[in-house]
Each structure stands twice: as C-alpha cells, then as structure tokens.
Design a protein that fits this description.
The chain is an alpha/beta fold and 192 residues long. The chain has helices at 12-25, 47-57, 92-96, 117-128, 150-156, 172-183, and strands spanning 5-9, 34-40, 65-69, 77-78, 87-91, 98-99, 107-112, 134-141, 164-171. Helix 1 (12-25) crosses helix 2 (47-57).
C-alpha cells in the first residue's frame, strides 16, 4: 500500500516532536495513514514520554503492526480501538498492562525472562487464545544455564489456532543486538 506509513520513533524527544508536529494543523492528531508503528528506546522510564505514547496510540485506528520496546512505568495500554492490529512485538511486561478488550492478534513476538515464563504463557493464552496463529517466544537469560525444553512452552500454551511456534534462547547481552538487527533497518523489516 503506497499510502501506508511505517512510523519509527527512537527516543522520547522524537516522540514529543512528532506529537507536537501532528497537532499543529489538526488538534485531533490524524494518524489514519500509519499502519505500522515502532517505538523503541532505552530503559529509562519517562512519565512525559509515556503520556505522549499513550496519546499517540489512542489515535492509531488503522494500525496493523505494533512494535513496542519502551519503558511504560506500569501504564495501561489502550488497544481496544485497534481492531485492525494483526501483530505485536514487545516485552512480556507489556502483556500485564494491556487494557481489555484486546484486538484479535494473529502474530505475537515476545521477549520473556525465565522468572516470567509461566505468567507470560498464561497471559498469552488468556488474551489471544481465539485469534493467535503465530507466536515467537524469545527467552532471555543472564548467562549460561540450563534452559527448559522448548517443548515445555508448547505444553504451557492453550492456543487452539496456533500454526507456528518459534522459541529462541538468548543471552541478555545479545538481546539488544537482536532487537536492533530486526527493527533497526525498517526497509527490510520482519514482523514475525
């Protein structure tokens, strides 16, 4: 689609600047052309950036692909109006702050820590059991250790429509490189 826009925001300053420019001519902030949105920056929680992000997400009615790797300081994320959202790439912590009802996601890519695995798999099944077709789980570990078998991930999921499951184990220090390689160059971007 030539009219579709993929918006990439890589810092709280860029987010604030985009919000301000968006509302210059249109106080409502029209985002109808944005079909893919990537927001990713460091681990510093910023109250103003979280408010700007929530403001922007609340206006994205035609979004199909969402990538969120930002600190959200436990804010509730409004996705109920995003009925066109098909894929989500995020940290497992995001699943805890999603607000119901949820869009019928078809694809989910999630980074999860070992201590969060059981809760994350339960949340995925609870939130997206009726719609999820593709799931990528990226398990992040601090150092060499014995990871549970990927077969345990299958056993923990109650996803009757699931057709594709990918489980990758990553060292924490490699995780940032993986995210940057997958989402840094938007011209050749993979959404699951």
């Amino acid at each position: 689609d030539l009219d579709a826009i993929h918006l990439v925001i890589d810092s709280p300053i860029a987010l604030k600047t985009f919000r301000e420019s968006l509302t210059l001519d249109d106080p409502a902030g029209n985002t109808s052309a944005i079909q893919a949105f990537t927001a990713m920056w460091g681990h510093t929680a910023d109250h103003v950036a979280a408010e700007d992000l929530l403001w922007l997400l609340a206006r994205m009615n035609n979004l199909k692909h969402l990538v969120l790797y930002v600190p959200l300081t436990q804010r509730r994320i409004p996705l109920e109006h995003m009925r066109t959202l098909q894929s989500l790439n995020a940290e497992a912590a995001l699943l805890r702050v999603l607000r119901a009802p949820h869009p019928p996601l078809r694809a989910l890519s999630v980074y999860v820590l070992p201590e969060d695995e059981a809760g994350t798999y339960a949340a995925i099944a609870r939130l997206f059991a009726k719609s999820l077709i593709k799931l990528r789980v990226l398990r992040t570990f601090d150092g060499p250790r014995e990871q549970g078998s990927p077969a345990r991930v299958c056993a923990a999921l109650a996803l009757p429509r699931l057709e594709y499951l990918e489980v990758r184990d990553l060292l924490a220090k490699v995780r940032a490189l993986v995210i940057a390689s997958e989402y840094g160059d938007v011209s050749d971007r993979r959404l699951l």
